[in-house]
């Protein structure tokens, strides 16, 4: 990732939808029924799930609101429909940067769209809009819409894409989950977020230092379900290559996108567990 400038553009918080929902008195849709796939989990998931994975390239000329990208999805519809995940790259990056996340997540039973942004320099507010446009396209117009469950959608992102995931959770409070990874945004007030949110920071991050970005973003959250993980010794870009952090991320998505309560016990891992993102304090789950 290219180091973003600190000054200039200030993001606009998109809270109108949330305010309308609150004013309506419980306008949030009820969670869909729990979906359980596969045997009872005995350990954190890995990057290889039980589903074979198919791939669909998305030309930016064929979509609106985002720059195209790649869709990874479970082959066949026997266990569908599946939750839908939109994943945004960081500043100066594209969908190829996060390519390993596509099969890792789709093999666990999700339809995954890795997006390209309209501009590689788009800030988090624009990336939020693009993430939501990608979700809407998958469930409404894409060739795989028959496999996609419109009631189970979530957002993930790296760096400015992580900031975009947080902003998308502000704009669309009925998302089932958000996973900002080494997020960067100009402010850290996400107290209006109601979406179950897993924030991932990196101990060695010098581009978006966790103490300045990831941790304050987490500390501002008031959502009932929230967790903060710090990857020991890792740098800002550690999520761009295969890493055991996929385990806690998949467990979070299984619990809150699928509603699979069997994964609740994996959401607050012991800080001493070696080899994957360790809990750095802060975990509230339901």
Number of spatially distinct domains: 1
Which class do the helix and strand fractions yield? alpha/beta
Rounded mean pLDDT score: 88
Radius of gyration: 17 Å
Strand order of the largest sheet: 1-2-4-3-5-6-7-8-9
CATH architecture: 3-Layer(aba) Sandwich
By DSSP, the count of extended strands is: 9
Helical content, roughly? 10-25%
What shape does the CA trace take? globular
Span between termini: 34 Å
Order of helices and strands: HEEEHEHEHEEHEHE
CATH superfamily: Alpha/Beta hydrolase fold, catalytic domain
Low-confidence stretches: 1-26
CATH class membership: Alpha Beta
Keywords: Hydrolase
Family: Belongs to the AB hydrolase superfamily.
GO molecular function, one term: carboxylic ester hydrolase activity
Pfam family, one: PETase
Overview of the molecule:
GO terms for molecular function: carboxylic ester hydrolase activity. There is one protein chain. This protein is an alpha/beta fold. It has a single domain (62-284), classed as Alpha/Beta hydrolase fold, catalytic domain (Rossmann fold), CATH 3.40.50.1820. It has helices at 16-23, 101-106, 124-140, 160-171, 214-220, 246-256; strands spanning 53-58, 69-74, 82-88, 110-115, 148-158, 177-181, 197-202, 226-231, 278-284. The protein has a 9-stranded mixed β-sheet with strand order 1-2-4-3-5-6-7-8-9, sandwiched between helices. Helix 5 (214-220) links the parallel strand 7 (197-202) and strand 8. The chain starts with 15 loop residues before the first helix and ends with a strand. The model is unreliable at 1-26 (pLDDT under 50).
């Amino acid at each position: 990732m290219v180091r973003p400038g600190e000054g200039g553009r200030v993001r606009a918080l998109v809270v109108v939808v949330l305010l309308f929902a609150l004013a309506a008195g419980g306008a949030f849709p009820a969670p869909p029924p729990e979906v359980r796939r596969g045997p009872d989990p005995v350990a954190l998931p890995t990057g290889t799930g039980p589903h074979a994975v198919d791939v669909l390239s998305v030309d930016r000329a064929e979509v609106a609101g985002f720059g195209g990208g790649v869709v990874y999805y479970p082959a066949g519809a026997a266990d569908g429909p599946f939750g839908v995940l939109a994943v945004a790259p960081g500043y100066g990056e594209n969908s190829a940067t996060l390519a390993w996340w596509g099969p890792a997540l789709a093999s666990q039973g999700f339809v995954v769209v890795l997006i390209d942004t309209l501009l590689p320099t788009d800030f988090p507010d624009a990336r939020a809009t693009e993430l939501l446009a990608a979700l809407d396209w998958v469930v409404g117009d894409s060739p795989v819409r028959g496999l996609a469950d419109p009631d189970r959608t979530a957002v993930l992102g790296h760096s400015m894409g992580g900031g975009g995931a947080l902003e998308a959770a502000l704009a669309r409070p009925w998302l089932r989950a958000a996973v900002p990874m080494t997020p960067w945004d100009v402010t850290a007030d996400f107290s209006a977020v109601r979406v179950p949110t897993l924030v991932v920071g990196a101990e060695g991050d010098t581009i978006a230092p966790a103490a300045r970005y990831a941790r304050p973003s987490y500390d501002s959250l008031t959502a009932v379900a929230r967790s903060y993980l710090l990857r020991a010794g890792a740098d800002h870009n550690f999520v761009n290559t295969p890493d055991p952090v996929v385990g806690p991320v998949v467990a979070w998505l299984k619990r809150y996108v699928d509603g699979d309560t069997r994964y609740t016990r994996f959401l607050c891992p012991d800080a001493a567990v070696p080899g994957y993102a360790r809990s750095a304090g802060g975990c509230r789950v339901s």
